[in-house]
Structures are given as structure tokens and as C-alpha cells.
Amino acid sequence: MPKRRDYISWDEYFMGIAILSANRSKDPNTQVGACIVNNRNKIMSVGYNGFPTGCDDDDFPWDRAGDTYDTKYPYVCHAELNAILNNNGGSLSGCRIYVDLFPCNECAKAIIQSGIKEVLYLSDKYCDTVSTRASKRMFDAAGVKYTKIKMAHDELVLDFRESNI
């Protein structure tokens, strides 16, 4: 019997892990996930956007508008930074990061400082913002490659029923 031919690519696999991680986010508006992978296609870490450890997400605001102090923005840790911080001590130098939304300038700084050399993303919906423009400027200066990837599949379905194994 020949091997199966309809398996997913490495890019689909790792972006799928990032999107699956995003589903852990409790943010009611934006769920972002990240997956960091080394040059041997080994997952080094994953992350999603949420509050720092020890900050109860029931005690902090999820609002997007109003006095900044009373919005999520000063408190939420982005997926990319969480993935970098969740790493269990292995070097991230030369790794690539899969993220469904192009990184903001603060995450770009952490990506560069950690030694990650490539960013693969699905959406660049904030491409005209100062934050994203600054990210690209820093990535270009630091030699970090960034690539918008197109998936061969529009969706992958996870089926948790035991009968399908």
C-alpha cells in the first residue's frame, strides 16, 4: 500500500498549532497564537495572548475602549512574547515563529532579541499602523525574514471522537 499523499505541510502543521493555541485565549475580541520552531522542525514553545501568570483574568479588564488603565492593553501579554517566555531554556537562535497576526513593535523587539530569524504569518490586517511599520523596519534592520504564508487548505477540522482513530 502506498503512503498517504494528502497530509499537511510543515507550515500548515505549525500554523495549526499556533491557531490551536490561540483558542486558549480568553480575550473576547482577539485570539492570537504563536508557535516557535527550530531548524529541525521541533517545537520549542507555544503561546497565546492573555494576562501574565498570577493575574486573575476575572480581576482585570477585557475592554478595548475607555481610559487606558481600564482596558486590556496595559495588561495583556501577546502570543509571541508568551511563546518566547514559555520556552523551557533552549536557545531560540535561528528559530522561526508562526503567528496568525503580524507582530506588533513590542513583540518584534522580543523576537529580535531572542534570536528568532523568521516570522511566518497569516494576517497583516494592521499593516498601515505605526506599530506594524516599526516592526518591519526593525526586522529589516536586524535581518529577520517575514513571510505571509498561504495555506493549501482553508481549514483543518479536529475530530476528538474516539471512533475516528
Describe this structure in words.
The chain is α/β, with parallel strands linked by helices and 165 residues long. The chain contains 4 helices and 5 strands; from the N terminus they run H-E-E-H-E-H-E-H-E. It has helices at 10-22, 79-86, 105-114, 130-142; strands at 33-37, 43-48, 96-101, 118-123, 145-148. The chain has a 5-stranded mixed beta sheet with strand order 2-1-3-4-5, sandwiched between helices. Helix 3 links the parallel strand 3 and strand 4.
List the helices and strands and how they pair.
Layout: H1 10-22, E1 33-37, E2 43-48, H2 79-86, E3 96-101, H3 105-114, E4 118-123, H4 130-142, E5 145-148
Parallel strand pairs: 3-4, 4-5
Antiparallel strand pairs: 1-2, 1-3
Strand content range: 15-25%
Strand order of the largest sheet: 2-1-3-4-5
Terminal-residue CA separation: 19 Å
The helix-and-strand class reads alpha/beta
Instruction: State the helical fraction.
Output: 25-40%
Give a quick account of the main beta sheet: strands, pairing sense, barrel closure: 5 strands, mixed
What is the H-and-E element order? HEEHEHEHE
Quote the average pLDDT.
95
* Structure annotation, total helices: 4
**What value does the Rg take, in angstroms?**
17 Å
Broad shape: globular
